Each structure stands twice: as structure tokens, then as C-alpha cells.
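#help-structures

NK: newbie question. if I give both the sequence and a SMILES, will the prediction place the ligand too? trying with adenosine-5'-triphosphate
OV: yes, paste both and it writes out the complex. here, I ran yours:
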Amino acid sequence: MSSTPPARAPEFGRDALIVCESLVRIYQTGSVEVQALQGLDLAVDSGEMVAVVGASGSGKSTLLSILAGIDAPTAGRARVDRWNLLAMSRADRVRYRRHTVGFVRQQTASNLVPYLTARQMVDLPMTTARTPVKARRDRAAELLATLGVADCGDRRPSQLSGGQQMRVAIAVALANQPRVLLADEPTGELDTATSAEVFGALRDVNRRFGVTVVVVTHDPAVSGQVERTVAIRDGRTSSEVLRRATTNAEGDTHVIAEEYAVMDRAGRVQVPRDFREALALTRRVRLALEPDHVTIRPDTAETADSA
Ligand SMILES: Nc1ncnc2c1ncn2[C@@H]1O[C@H](COP(=O)(O)OP(=O)(O)OP(=O)(O)O)[C@@H](O)[C@H]1O
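OV: that's the protein plus ligand as C-alpha cells.
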């Protein structure tokens, strides 16, 4: 008797530029084990700009360090472009960090070298990558101009404001034309107006250079400006907000934001706490498949038992 093999689901994130699947990162400090990432799934397409939000300790920085090639995952799958982040040699890691990703840290000063000028700092990664002088000069001028700091080329970090330092840091991160720009709370140390400017600069480089941007932020005003916000809870992606602009008959443009729960590869979905509390959903719930949706109901037997 012949049996048809079950249809295989398409590979998760096959066409994405960044794919994390069931990603785990465990930190061991003495006898204490911290599971910073607990099976995180994430796919980001080329050219997207995505904000990552979540409570302190939820695993955002760990995710970014892994994508930046600074930290290595414990288990799962992580791929950026053609690089498998779980199986990179030391030399691969250097190449990856030099050419594929640019990284901007929260502490503005830690991105910069105190005794170099802005132009020299943008030049440095290109010198390391053996880019010819003329191309280096042109690229540095283009980046400083795009980031609105063309007039700061001869200044050292101490002669720049916090916002200017961050723009220069973004220019440095983009020097070798990476496909991905990662920013860990780039506006965390800045006031509201400067944050908005720096965030606008990130959006500009995303559009102008087509660089894929993943930005970790605590700031709802910042995350509200991107088309996609991914929320991380307890080391997993828990929900996503997608935003799109629509124009009504009067010509007014509105942004519509829709929140989605994220289902992991095993079919697990996290039901938000306010939904659980509103319907007293506890350990056991009743699931039913309807023609175009699934319902989740309280366990009436359990409710009756406890009455
Ligand atoms: N090097 C490390 N050694 C041990 N534990 C760590 C290390 N780095 C992070 N952790 C732990 O892993 C968990 C996730 O940390 P992570 O910094 O990724 O969170 P986060 O969401 O970025 O937090 P925050 O918003 O406060 O920066 C936390 O419990 C943290 O204490």
C-alpha cells in the first residue's frame, strides 16, 4: 500500500534576510542559569525597518548582540543573509561584523573614538576593509551629509551634541555598506526632540540605502513610527503591531495599527493577560475550529466545579 508523505510546511523565513527560529541563549553565572532567549522566532525581510520592544530583561539586547555577531546563541537557528550565526569561524565572524552588519549602541560615547574626528571615524572601518582612498572619501562625505552632520566632519566627539554623536555613530556603522543596521536603544540617552531627529535619521537611511534596520527601543513614540513593532516577552516574540497608512475620501491620511499575537512553530500563542482576566481563562480552555477562525472559551466544567 502506498501512502502519500505529509506535505511539508515551507521553511520558516526562507526568503527573509534575518531569520531566528527557536532561538535559545542561556547565560551561566556560577550555578545560576538565566534563559535570556527561550525559543524566539523572528523573520525580517530585506529593506524592512522593525522596532523591538519589551520590558527590561525580556531579552532584547541579547537578541541584538547575537544578530550583531558579538554573542553566540546556545541553540536554535539564526541566519542573517548567507551567514549561519551558530556555525561561524572566528574569521567568518570578523568578516560578518565588518561587512554584513552595522551596530549602534545606546551609550553614544561608546560608539566613538575620543581622539578621532567624525570623518576619521567614518573612514576607519573602510580602511580596515581596504577600501581605496577615493571611495572612502566619497562615502564618508555622503554619509555625513545624509545624516545631517556634514559640517561636523572635523570635530571630535567632545565637540558634538548627543544627537550629533549618535548620527556620526550611525554613519560609522554604515561605512562598509552593511545589509543590516542594528541599533540598541539609540535614543535612550536623548531628549524627546533629539530622539525624534535621530529616529528620523534612521528612517532616512532605511529608505535611502535600503538597509534593513532593527531598532530596540523603550520609547513608544519611536516604536509608533515604524511599520512593524515586535514585542518580546520572557525571551520570546509575543505580539506584533503592523501599521499602514490609508487615505480617506477627503484625502486625509491616517495610520491604522493592528496588533497580532505571534504563534510559534509548535502552534503556541500567548493570550494577553487582560483577555485571560476578562473571561477568567485559566489552565484549561476550550478550543473550537470555525470555518474561518478559532475560538477559545473558558472551561465551563471547571467554572461549575469551583462554583
Ligand atoms: N552576560 C550576561 N550574563 C548573565 N546574564 C545575562 C547576561 N546578559 C544578559 N543577561 C540576562 O539575560 C536576561 C535578558 O537580558 P537582556 O539584556 O537581553 O534584556 P533587555 O530586554 O535588553 O533588557 P533592558 O531593556 O533592561 O536592556 C536578563 O535576565 C539579564 O539579566
